[in-house]
TrEMBL record:
Pfam families: ACT_4, HD_4, RelA_AH_RIS, RelA_SpoT, TGS. It catalyses: guanosine 3',5'-bis(diphosphate) + H2O = GDP + diphosphate + H(+). The lineage of its organism: Bacteria, Pseudomonadati, Pseudomonadota, Gammaproteobacteria, Lysobacterales. It is an enzyme of class 3 (hydrolase). It comes from Cognatilysobacter lacus. Residues 407-468 form the TGS domain. This is guanosine-3',5'-bis(diphosphate) 3'-diphosphatase. One of its GO terms (cellular component) is plasma membrane.
Amino acid sequence: MSSFDRVTSPKAVPLPVPTGEVPEYVRELERAAAYLDDDQRALLVKAWRLGAEAHAGQTRKSGEPYITHPVAVAQVLAEQGLDVETLIAAILHDTLEDTELSHAQLVEEFGPTVAELVEGVTKLDKLQFRDRQEAAAESFRKMLLAMSRDLRVILIKLADRLHNMRTLGAQSPESRKRIARETIEIYAPIAQRLGMNLFKAELQDHGFRGLHPWRHAVISRRILTQPVMRRELLTQIEANLAQKLAKDKLMHRLVSRVKSPWSIYTKMRTEHKSFKQVMDVFGFRVVVRNVGDCYRALGVAHSAYKPLDSRFRDFIAIPKANGYQSLHTVLFGPYGSPVEVQIRTEEMDLVAERGIAAHWSYKFGGDGFNGAQSRAHHWITNLVESQRSAGSSLEFLENVKVDLFPDEVYVFTPKGDILSLPRNSTSLDFAYAVHTDIGNTAVASRVDGKLVPLRTKLVSGQRVDVITARSSAPKPQWLEFVVTGKARTAIRQQLKQLEHEDAVQIGHRMLDRALEALDTSLERVPAARLEAYLSEHRYPRLEALLAEIALGNRMPQQVALALVRERGQNLQRRAENYVHAPQDRILITGNEKGVISFAVCCLPVPGDEIMGYHTAGRGIVVHRIDCPNVVDYRKSPDRWVPIGWDRVVHGDFHAALKIEVDNRPGALAQVAAGIADAKANIDRVEYIERDANVAVLRFGIEVTSRSHLADVIRKVRKLNVALGVQRI
C-alpha cells in the first residue's frame, strides 16, 4: 500500500521537470544498479525526472518530497539485481493512481511492459467498498491477477511495502499497528511463499516493532547482551565444524545464524518456551560447491556431534513449495545444547535468500526459469483459479491466508508424483489438489493401501489414492475438516451451485402451479413479456427469478399475475381462488439444499403428514400438519405450499424423544445403547426433570423415517429402566 503516507498540499504549485543536478538519493539508486549499462541507468534518471514532475507538490508525512519513496523502492529492487523495466516501473508505480500521468504516456515514454507493471501495482481506490477491510481484500485480489501475468508486480509491491515499513515511524500509533498487522499476516508470508527470505525477515522485524514496540525492544536488547559463556560456546562449535570440514577437504563457507526478535517471540509463544530456552539453540549454515558436497558435509557434521535422528529433513530431494532446498539436521552440541545446521550449495543459498528474484527471467516459459519461479507461478495460477470461484474478496483473502502458512506435508500420488500440502491436510485436501473434479466426486481414499475416510489427516511419505463415484457430491460437513484454500473454495462453490439448482427447480414448480390457476403456463407466457419483467426487476436470467421465488423473496402468485396481464379478466380473484383450491403437492426428497428446511418446533420426518410455509430468505419451511404453530400460519394462506414426501427420500432427519427412566446408575447408558441398537444416532441429551426416583430426559436423535422412529421407540420401551417414551 505504497501511498498511505502521502500528503498533498492544496497550495502546492506543480514544479517543472527537474533539469539540474541529480540528487544524492538518485545517485544511490544508480550505484545500486551498477550491473546495468549506461543507457539503462540513463533511463532510470529519465523515469525519476518524469515521476518528480508528476508527484510535484506531494510530500510524505515525514515532510520529504514524495518522489523519494518510489526511488527508494527501486533501490530495494536494484539491490536484488532486477531488470531495468522493473526498476522504472517501481519509480513510477504510483503515477497512474495519484497523478495526471496517463497509461498512454507511460507506453510512449517507456513501452507497454512498464505501463502494464505500473497498472498491475495500482490500487483500487476509485471503487467504493463497505469498509477498509473489504477495500484491502479487493486490492489484494487485483494485485494477484496482475501477478499472474507478470511476477515482477509482486516484487514491486513487496519492495514498496518494505520501504514503507522502514519509514513507519511517521504514522499515527493506530495506523502503525494496522499496517504492521497487515504486513505480518499478508506480505511477510507472501515473501516467504515466494522464497524471498531476506524480504520476509525484514518485513517481520519491522512489523513486530510496529505491532509490539516494547516487546521488540526488550528482546532486541537481550539478544545484544548475550552472556560471555554463550559467545564462547558459539565460537567453539564453529571452530570444531570448520576444522572437520577442512580435514575432509570440503570447500565451504560457514556462517553462524542469529535469530531475529520475531522468530524468538513466535517460538516463545507457540512452543511455550522461555527466552533462555530459545536462545540456547545454536544455528549454523554450511554453503558448499555442489549437491554431492552437501551430503558429504552432512556426514562430517554428524561425525562432529551426534545427530537427533527425528530432526533430519532433506529439502534437496524434496524441495519446499517455494523452491527452497537445503539439508536440515539438529546435533547434540557441547553441554547438550542443540545445534541446528543447514547445508546447501551457493545456488540454493541464493534462491533461499532471494527466491523468485534470483536469476530473474523476464517472462513465463522463458529459458532459465528457476525452481522458485516455477513453483511461484504454479501457486499463483492456482490462486487465480480459486479467486474466480470465491464468493467475495474477503472469502478469497481468508483462503489465501490459509495457504500462506503451510508447514508442508509431502505425499505421493499413485503414479509416484510428489504433492506438497499444508500441515493437517486430509485425504480430501489431497483429492482437490489433484483435480477439482476428483475432490467433488470423492467418497473415500486409500492411504498406503489401507481404506480410510476422507477426513483422515496425512503425514509425509504416504501414498494416497482417491476413490470416486459419479453420484457423489460435496457435503457441508466437508468444510469442517479441509484446510487448503483450494478445497474450501471448490466445496463452497459446488454447494452454492447445488443449492441454486434445487432452488431453480422448486421455484419453477411453484410458478407453474400459480400460472396453471390462471389457465396458462410458463411456456405460453410471451417471451417479450417475460424479458420485460426480468429486466424491470433486474434479474439477469429466468433462473435467478425462479431461485428467488423458491427462497421466499418473491411470491409465485404475484409473479404469475404480473406475467399474465389480460384485459377484461379478474385475475386477482382467480389467483385468490387458487390459494384456497386443492392443489397438486410438491414432492420433496429431503435433499433440497438451501431451499427446504425442517421446522425445529415439530421436527417432521418422512412418513409424517406435512405442509410447507413460504418464508422470505429461508425458502419453504416444512411443518408437521399437527404442529401447534400451523394455526398461526393459517392467517397467511397465500404462503402455504402443498408439500409431500417423494417415493425415495434420502438422509437422516432430526427427531426428539421424551423418555422417563428409573433414576439409577447406568440407566442413561442403557437407553443410549437401546437407541444405538435401533441404528439411530444420538446428537443431544439433556435432563428435563430429575428427582430421587425418576429422571425425565430429552433425546435428540437422527432417523430415516417415521417407521424407523417407531422402531426406536419400541426398542426403548422394552428396556427395564424405561418408564415411558413419547415423541416430542
